Structures are given as C-alpha cells and as structure tokens.
Amino acid sequence: MRLRAPVRTWRCGGRLDEEIQQFLDHLRVERELTPATIEAYGRDLALFARFAADRQVREASAVRSIDVLDFLAFLTDRKLSPRSQARRLIALRQLFKFLKGERLCAEDPTEEVTCALRAQAAEFLTVEEVDRLLAAPDRATPRARATPPCSRRSTPRGCASPSS
C-alpha cells in the first residue's frame, strides 16, 4: 500500500493541533478517505482550533460544550449557512469520537450540541381557504357532479353556492 503525501494543516501551536493531525492521519491511513475529504476536515477543524486558541483552549480535553456552541454562534455571525455549520459540527463530532475511542479525551463536548438545519417553512392554508374547502360540494355525490366547477377564490355568477 502506497502512502499519500501528508495533508497540509494549519497550526495554532497547541496540543489540539497534534490531536487534529492524529485524527487526519487516521482518516487518511485507516479509513482511506480521499485527499479532498481529508483536506475539508482539516480546514473545518483548523478553523475550530484557531477559534479555541483565541479562547486559550489548547487541547481537546479542555474543550467544553459551551466552546462548541460559541463556535457555532461564531459561524452564524460569519453568515455561514446552516448546512456549512452542520458540516463543521460533524467534523468536530468525528474528531471527538476518535479522540474518545483512542482514550486521548475523556469527554465528548459535542454530545449535547445540536445544530438544526432550518427546514423550509411549511405552507399552510389560510382560514378562508379552509372555509372554501369545507364548503365545496362533495364531488362523489350526484348533485355535486351536476354543479358547474367554480373558481377557488370566489364564487362567480351562475355557480351554485353550497347553501343552494
């Protein structure tokens, strides 16, 4: 098996950098992910490492859930889409899962953190639309089939109203 060239990393000068590099090596050697995927993980985790270093957090065991939440708030302030935020949270989850499995970190600060992707707003009928639907004749009955179809928005002249 031929080993690929080492993945370029962005260093912040702390133990967290080494832990991230161990994780990236694991992705490259053991999980055999593509270089592009490893590079994306590296970028996402390097951004977190820089954020953590600014907060004087220099190793994974010192990261708390509040740090992860603050990082997501930081991403929101930078106008990152919910999908991009979720991707970065997934990278952090994978990192801490790896570190916990290797017994390099006792706790996983991402366990309690969720990042909800905003679902598209559901469209609901207005009260008027519901009233019109309820008032519409049942097309399964013979009387309703004889009634000419009417506009959805209003009852034009010549159309039977539900009360007639």
Task: Outline the secondary-structure elements.
Blueprint: H1 15-29, H2 35-54, H3 65-77, H4 82-101, H5 127-135, H6 142-146
Helix pairs in contact: 1-2, 2-4
Write a concise synopsis of the structure shown.
The protein contains 6 helices and no strands. The protein is mostly helical and 164 residues long. The longest helix is centred in the first third of the chain and has 20 residues, at 35-54.
Task: Give an overview in words.
50% of the residues lie in helices and 0% in strands. It has six helices and no strands. The protein has a domain at 15-101: Tyrosine recombinase, N-terminal domain (DNA polymerase, domain 1, Orthogonal Bundle), CATH 1.10.150.130. With 164 residues, the chain is mostly helical. It starts with 14 loop residues before the first helix and ends in an 18-residue tail after the last helix. The protein is elongated. It has helices at 15-29, 35-54, 65-77, 82-101, 127-135, 142-146. The longest helix is centred in the first third of the chain and has 20 residues, at 35-54. Helix 1 (15-29) runs antiparallel to helix 2. Mean pLDDT is 77; it is low at 1-12 and 154-159.
